[in-house]
TrEMBL record:
Species: Klebsiella michiganensis
The organism's taxonomic lineage, starting at the top: Bacteria, Pseudomonadati, Pseudomonadota, Gammaproteobacteria, Enterobacterales
Keyword Secreted included in the entry's annotation: no
GO cellular component terms given for this protein: cell outer membrane; transporter complex
Name of the protein in question: LPS assembly protein LptD
Classification via InterPro entries: LipoPS_assembly_LptD, LptD, LptD_C
Alphabetical list of Pfam families matching this protein: LptD
Key word Membrane present: yes
């Protein structure tokens, strides 16, 4: 009835070698949830010393449960309490995590000027719909200090994150109308530069009315107040109105969409005098910006039969975009950065995210995609290549944008993507972007994968981003010394059973700029019907040492035992080991 097996004086052995003993264990034999202690975990890392976890699962109610985990770390000098609570109600589903370490010995030694050595994390994720029209969402992460994710492993952030997001929203939506009120804040982890704008609050409104004769219409409005975490930075209230009218035409082999819209924005800015004097800017208290936009986007699809029941398509695309120039040097940049571009990005309306920088445009984007399908309509191959040709320079009037100082015209941005499923178990994927405004290859990536099944795979990949591209698209990272030469990493991920019940997982990434390894992981698992034993080693970058101008590394040795229910069928667990890696595997097939 309880669907549980009790085990007294449990012993686990590898051959004749005992590796684990427990005076009492419970093993599930069904699907019934039950409160009780879960299997403890242990590992050793250079930053935390010996670590020991003893999770307790609390089945509070059919729609509520919690997992309470004391996490002992010998070098930290205490126990971190990790508390996860899940709920399912009529108002929605959610998860709340609160981790708390009362006192951190290492943090206290490293930050002697900080009298508070308490470390904590709070995470809340919620998604809910009430009465089919009201929507409530939360994606909220906050930590005690900028070094938290460097010091502790967490599902809710990593050492490579530059910030944590705290977003709450409530909205109403019906067939043609939706409105959302939200607040968004950022906790920046860069101690040298903590400037970050928060939207407190933001209102977004959309109204759609299609089939107005041959036209579709859309009205978009936004009102937002920006506040910076640095009191010396400007504040602003922005009100934006954007009506759009479309004329879509299509048939079986092509489509053309003609669109016209008006971009009307008002800024009310404050706290400007000291900022203008210190930075040489000329931001104004009140600024209005009105600019029309016109776009024509045409696509065609041609097909031809090939041998062995394969079908090839040829899909040319051309888009003309016109936006007149408006000087935006009187406006601060509150939520605008250069957008990352791949092939699909060639056909965007905007060069920048947000609304503060809308570049002028008199340009034609052209591209072509070719696909190959097999007899079962499975896509086996595609390749896309395209460019943007600028008749006039794209400008915003902001002198801080380096390439606007040059009169750049012609074919400035090239991008290409490809995918090739060579066979059912072989795949290749890659992409490249060249930007003449940056005068280099901006980004590039490539992946080759062999995957026989979920336990047998080998993946090789390469990723590249130029330092100029990082500075333009990710300004919060541009000052970090570890990115001064850009990103150039080659890596391999592999998973393979070696003998019956045994599997090995490994990952290795090498930084070609520094000529040093970036991340390494090796895991070995023994799996049976009733339990699994994992042993792992991981070496990963965990911050930057300013004194030596080199990356800091953390070495972790892990040991894990998993008891399995007698009523379930388990595989070798290689996918779980891959997902636990700091550079998680993502299939290219």
């Amino acid at each position: 009835e309880e669907q549980v097996a009790e085990i007294w004086n449990a012993r686990f052995k590898l051959g004749s070698v005992p590796i684990f003993y427990s005076p009492y264990l419970q093993l599930p034999v069904g699907d019934k949830r039950r409160s009780g202690f879960l299997i403890p975990n242990a590992k050793y890392s250079t930053k935390n010393g010996v670590e020991f976890y003893l999770p307790y699962y609390w089945n509070i109610a059919p729609n509520f449960d919690a997992t309470l985990t004391p996490h002992y770390m010998s070098k930290r000098g205490g126990v971190m309490w990790e508390n996860e609570f899940r709920y399912l109600t009529k108002a929605g589903t959610g998860l709340i995590e609160f981790d708390y370490l009362p006192s951190d010995k290492i943090y206290q030694d490293d930050h002697s000027g900080d009298s508070n050595s308490r470390r904590w994390l709070f995470y809340w994720n919620h998604s809910g719909v009430v009465d089919q029209v009201w929507r409530f969402n939360a994606d909220y992460t906050k930590v005690s200090d900028p070094d938290y994710f460097n010091d502790f492993s967490s599902k809710y952030g990593s050492s490579t994150d530059g910030y944590a997001t705290q977003k709450l929203s409530a909205g109403y939506a019906n067939q043609n109308f939706d409105a959302t009120v939200s607040t968004k804040q950022f906790q920046v982890f860069n101690r040298d530069s903590s400037n970050a704008y928060s939207a407190e609050p933001q209102l977004d409104v959309n109204y759609y009315q299609n089939d107005v004769g041959p036209f579709d219409t859309h009205l978009y409005g936004q009102a937002v107040h920006f506040v910076n975490s640095n009191s010396r930075m400007p504040e602003a209230t922005r009100v934006h109105f954007e009506p759009t009218i479309n004329l879509p035409l299509s048939n079986g082999w092509g489509s053309i969409n003609t669109e016209a819209k008006l971009l009307a924005t008002h800024y009310q800015q404050s706290n400007l005098d000291d900022y203008n004097a210190a930075n040489g800017t000329d931001y104004k208290d009140s600024v209005n910006r009105v600019m029309p936009q016109f776009k024509v986007d045409g696509k065609m699809v041609f097909e031809r039969d090939m041998q062995e029941n394969y079908t090839q398509t040829l899909e040319p695309r051309m888009q003309y975009l016109y936006i007149p120039y408006r000087d935006q040097s009187k406006i601060g940049s509150y939520d605008s950065t250069l957008l990352q571009s791949d092939y699909s990005g060639l056909f965007r309306d905007r060069t920048y995210s947000g609304l503060d920088r809308i570049a002028s445009a008199n340009q034609v984007s052209t591209g072509v995609t070719s696909r190959v399908y097999d007899a079962a309509a499975v896509e086996r191959f595609n390749i896309s290549v395209g460019q943007i040709y600028y008749f006039t320079e794209a400008r915003t009037g902001d002198d801080n944008i380096n390439w606007e100082n040059n009169d750049t015209r012609g074919s400035l941005v090239w991008a290409g993507d490809t995918y090739w499923r060579i066979a059912d178990d072989w795949g290749l994927r890659g992409g490249i972007q060249y930007d003449t405004r940056l005068d280099n290859v901006a980004t590039g990536s490539g992946t080759v994968e062999y995957r026989r099944d979920e336990n047998r795979l080998v993946q090789l990949n390469y990723r590249y981003a130029s330092p100029e591209y990082i500075q333009a698209t990710l300004p919060s990272y541009s000052t970090a010394k570890q990115y001064k030469d850009g990103i150039s990493q080659v890596g391999m991920t592999a998973s393979w059973p070696i003998v019956d019940r045994w599997a090995v997982v490994g990952a290795y990434y090498y930084d070609t700029n520094t000529r040093k390894s970036a991340n390494q992981m090796l895991g070995v698992q023994y799996s049976s019907c009733c339990y699994a034993i994992r042993v792992g080693y991981e070496r990963k970058i965990n911050g930057w040492d300013n004194s030596s101008s080199e990356s800091k590394y953390d070495n972790t040795f892990g040991f894990n035992i998993e008891l399995r229910g007698l009523s379930s069928n388990y595989g070798l667990g290689t996918q779980q080991m891959l997902r636990s890696n700091i550079l998680p595997y993502q299939s290219s097939l």
